Amino acid sequence: MQLHLAVVLLCVTAGLFAIAGAEDPYRFFDWNVTFGDIYPLGVRQTGILINGQFPGPDIHSVTNDNLIINVHNSLNEPFLISWSGIQQRRNSYEDGVYGTTCPIPPGKNFTYILQVKDQIGSFFYFPSLAFHKAAGGFGGIRILSRPRIPVPFPDPAGDYTVLIGDWYKSNHTNLKARLDRGKKLPFPDGILINGRGPGGASFNVEQGKTYRLRISNVGLQNSLNFRIQNHRLTLVEVEGTHTLQTTYSSIDLHLGQSCSVLFKADQPAKDYYIAVSTRFTSRVLTSTAILRYSNSAGPVSGPPPGGPIIQIDWSLNQARSIRTNLTASGPRPNPQGSYHYGLINTTRTIRLANSAGQVNGKQRYAVNSVSFVPADTPLKLADYFKIGGVFRVGSISDNPYGGKIYLDTSVMQADYRAFIEIVFQNNENIVQSWHLDGYSFFVVGMDGGQWTTASRREYNLRDAVSRCTTQVYPKSWTAIYVALDNVGMWNLRSEFWARQYLGQQFYLRVYTTSTSLRDEYPIPKNALLCGRASGRHTRPL
Q1: Is the pTM of this model over 0.85?
Q2: Which of 45, 138, 309, 492 is the most exposed place for a label (fewest CB within 10 A)?
């Protein structure tokens, strides 16, 4: 048995060198995914644990590292992990969403083969199927710069992952069943900070030293505001982009977003509140953690610090102030500002409007009136094996037409190496959050009202931040520029997780007729095959 396993690992690892290149380091992870009892809000729940941990273990890596992650599914149902912000260059097969990757069957394992090619920054992973995200299974990802690449701030004394998110006391199975019946979810019950409720998490610091916090909103429904009592936060990185180092008293993180802040432990030695609260909600949820000085003279005192609640202008102005540091290096030594996106002509404009409504008496959510329904076969596999009838290119339009919501497996085609403009129009009274797998994009503009061609006069064509998740405020629009340099089938989704689950997503098929390995890798040799792709062959070992 051990000899057989060794042979399999040798074959898989040998095959990796053909894809990833022998010069870049390999990091190996072995994860066992189980259900287990958790008590984050004081009541017992069924959580998803990775190697017994809730949240799951951090992934530490360096630019260009190859990550070999063997996931054992010890649940009693299919399971997948997706890697938010990891671009999977030329390799959407590894993206870990149902449109690209077959679920790992119960009792089986699958080895993800990822390369964090030309990336730095703070991201997270999460379970992508069956509303599992409401049970845990998420964790932080950090990609450090290579040793000789300059970073625009000194090494901090400590570097902490901070996963924040709203949370329900109900098990994920009950929440999923409610959505399957066509009902909306209620307001969440609380907020977790690193998997713990109010006062449960703590962070230790030494007086006079500077620390980095990598904060991700891994929640289901709400934008959140993060702050530390009596301390200022200096933003230094957003989803892989070094930013202008602007200092804030607090910072908004919308669903699915990540950022890094620095703070100096420069206050009298005691304990201080870290506070996280919901934004734009009539009922405000707040949770706390503790910042503990090593020579603390006493516990926290007074109420937790207050933050903004419903002020949209405050959040919009903060979002506009987040800009790229043009002179800093990114994953490569050349400055981030050396790519002049504002001088490139766009070749296509796609306008996307989110909507909510009923289909056959059940709640659904849509993009350009199409509510996505999964096919019986991952779309990327159907594409590779040329299986007809799974999806139809062009099943979602480039523009909203205002019709009634209908169900379809929506796929939009785009040309490889095109440079496009996408406008997200939000005519609802919620804060929307959109994520595009496989890419970073430039957030060139956002404002209230309806987008028109005249709105382009407001665009930031010089130092807009490049990221993979952007918010759209109520009755507002956000515009992005995207260089489509990554062939594959890429999920574009709402990060409002009930909306994503009930159809507010689609797939962008970035297509080329080329079959060169320079443009796209072949299907992984160990790819799971399911649906109408069952019984077919990937490639010989």
Answers
A1: yes
A2: 309
